[in-house]
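Entry:
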Amino acid sequence: MSPASQETAGAGRTPVPARPRVPLVSLLAALVAASAVLLGGAGGAEAAGYRYWSFWQGNGTTWEYATQGPSLLRPDDGTVQGFRFAVSEDSGDASQPRRAPDFGAICADTPAKDGSKRVALVIDAGTAADAPGGEEPPALRTACARVAPDASSAEALAAVAKPLRYDSSAMLCAISGYPKSGCGEQVSGDSGSAEPSAPAKTPGDRAGGGEDDGGGPSVGLVVGIGAVLLLGVAAVVQARRRR
C-alpha cells in the first residue's frame, strides 16, 4: 500500500484517546492516607482504660509500680506500700498515690514491737472523675500496719483497711469497701462509662510470666494494613503497565 493509500485508509479512523496516567506519587499518597486512617481508628479504639486499684512500693521519696501483687509480696520492716484507685491503660500510664512514701511520718505513732514488723500504707481512692457511677471516693488516708514478720502486703492492708474484696483470680477489687462493685472493668475513653471486658492485668499477673500485650495492634488491624499495601502495590504495577 502506498503512502497515499495509507493516508486515505487512515483518514476514516476515529482516533483512540490516550488513557490517563495516574502519577505514582498520587497512588503512594492515597496508600499512606488509607494506612493512617486504619492506624488512627485503632488508636482511638485503644484509648479506653481500666478502673482498678494499682499497687506501688515506696523507694526513697518516690513511688515505683510493684512487680508483684500484694498477696505475693512480703515487705520488709520499715517499708512503704501504696494503693491508688484510678482509670489507666497500663502500668506506664497508672496514677501514683498522691502522698509521699514517708515511713517515719506514717508510723510515728506506732512503736516497734518484738516479733512483728511495721509496714506504712498510703491508700488513695482517687478522684471523682475515676469513681464508678453513683459512688464518691473516700478521702486519702495513711495507716501503719503492725503485722507478723512473714506477712504479705495483702495481710498488712487487711489489718488496717477492711473489708477487702477480691475476684476469683485473686485480683484486689475493693479496699475498705470501695468501690461497692466492679473489678478492673474496661472504661470507655469517650464517656467514662464501664464496659464489660476482661479485667486489667494486676502486677501479680505480670510477675507470673504472662506476656503483656502492651496495647499492640490487633490481628484485624494488621490484616487491614496488609490489604491496603497489597492494593497499593497492585495499583502501582498496573500504572506502570499502562505506560
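Confidence is low (pLDDT under 50) at residues 2-11, 195-219.
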